[in-house]
Amino acid sequence: MAAPIFNAFNNLKIRTLGFIVIGFVLGSGAIFIGSSVLTSSKIGEAQSLWTKYKADTSPKALALNSIVEHVGYGGMIHHFKNYVLRKDAPRIAKFQISAGAAMAALDRYANTAPNADEKAALDAIRKTVAVYSQKIAVVSGLAAEGKTAREIDQTVKISDKAAIAGIATLTDAVRSGREDGAGATKTELVKGLRDGFGYGGMIHQFKNYVLRQDAPRIEKVRKAMSGLRATIERYRASGVDEKEEKALSDIAGVIDAYGAGLAKVEELAGSGLTPEQIDKQVKVNDGPALKGLATLV
């Protein structure tokens, strides 16, 4: 009687051991598969980060960002328009520094083996910067003669079309050089913010509206503001730290201030006030936005 019981007990132990072994094998397999998936995910994430890092630090991307920075918001066009409006002599030096920095950035891009289209774009931008550099002396002379901002603006109007098209060509070239699937990098998003603010963008159109009070320009300013806000949200969606969030909030605050200023200019346009008088009423502190853009670089 004891033997059957003993055999049954052995069979039970064998079956239990078998289940344990099977469970161990299945568990090990699951762990291995899970580890493989996790490892693959981490490798994919690392590759994506590396791809974006390469795009962010490419000589062309960095040079283009510098070009846009120095010709636009807080740079050449910003100082030129403010000098026409305010005729403050110290601004000439600020303009010259920005124009020189823009030329240096153009030279850096020229050293990245550009193709024929890029070379033509660089030439167009360089020529426009040179024209502005010549015209700043004309503005200075007219200001010394006591000419008004409106009179000066009409005398020194410059076509920006070729340079704006040139920047667009360089932007396309940098984007096409990015590896597939890389997505917009933070460098590109900062460049997008500088585009939206600067040359051909919000500040350029806003200052021209103060000078000329031409109603169709209002929509151009609003469109630039809308694009800036969208770019801020894209930057946030890419993941930001505390410093970046503060920078973005400060930039957004300056956009809002220009929005209020635009409404004020609309109200004052046609009131008989001169551009100089309107400018004094709608001055905006650009410091927080310029500091924010520098933080994001």
Word description of this protein:
The protein has 297 residues and is an all-alpha fold. It has one domain (60-296). It has 13 helices and no strands. The longest helix is centred in the N-terminal third of the chain and has 55 residues, at 2-56. It is globular, with a radius of gyration of 30 Å. Residues 37-55 have low confidence and may be disordered.
Overall strand count: 0
Number of helices: 13
Largest sheet: none
Measure the end-to-end span.
86 Å
Strand residues, percent: under 5%
Structural class: mainly alpha
Seen as an oligomer or otherwise, the chain set is: single chain
Q: How many domains make up the 3D coordinates?
A: 1
In brief, what are we looking at here?
The protein is 81% helix and 0% strand.
Secondary structure elements and pairings:
Elements: H1 2-56, H2 59-71, H3 76-86, H4 90-110, H5 116-144, H6 149-155, H7 161-176, H8 186-197, H9 202-212, H10 216-237, H11 242-268, H12 275-281, H13 287-296
Helix pairs in contact: 2-4, 2-7, 2-8, 3-4, 3-5, 3-9, 4-5, 5-7, 8-10, 9-10, 10-11, 11-13
